[in-house]
Automatic annotation (TrEMBL):
Function description: Mediates the side-chain deamidation of N-terminal glutamine residues to glutamate, an important step in N-end rule pathway of protein degradation. Conversion of the resulting N-terminal glutamine to glutamate renders the protein susceptible to arginylation, polyubiquitination and degradation as specified by the N-end rule. Does not act on substrates with internal or C-terminal glutamine and does not act on non-glutamine residues in any position.
Name used for this protein in its record: Protein N-terminal glutamine amidohydrolase
EC number(s) from the headed UniProt entry: 3.5.1.122
Keyword terms: Hydrolase
Amino acid sequence: MSSVIISELPAMDATRFQHTPYYCEENVYLLCKTLCESGVADETGSDLFVVFISNERKQVPLWHQKASTRADGIVLWDYHVICVQRKKESDSEPLVWDLDSTLPFPSPLASYVTETIQPSFQLFAEYQRFFRVVHAPLFFKHFASDRRHMKAPDGSWIAQPPPYQPIVAQDGVLHNLSEYTAMSATDTLSSLDPDTVSEAISQKLGVFVSHSQLQDLFTKLP
């Protein structure tokens, strides 16, 4: 698989996209929509995948994050969401679109994994990262958030919400974010054979893999 030559891509400035701090799932939803509308991605989002990163403890270390106050850019998120673009009829490497990263926008998947996930860094088991990969067309159809997770017990906002109305699923569901962020190591795919991957990616909640399976997954997607 050949490397992506970033200079061949349309110049993308992360600041042109809607971004509300601490609402990464909504940011990525709108990012995917904009990529489709601008022609950078297929108009249906068929080459886009929404990736939730978390674990059972809701403590995942990621490097090169804009929210960090450290030189290495590390942040311990409860969860994070990115977009991965994989063009079916291309030998180019999948691209990661992460609005909260200080890395190039977009970044080749391999370099993003090396720099942001840092799989060679030895972590305690409870901090291992898991990935829920959801096909964007299904995400557009099913995802909903009424932002309840960002409210304190007294009803005040933990972080100021986006200025637009909450995202509602096509079937009228108001909130299902927790279904996407729920993660258990026992749910990871035992095999990345094409049939198993094809069946899983056609489901609402997509494919659930470990960090060691992530890059291989994008070579097996239909």
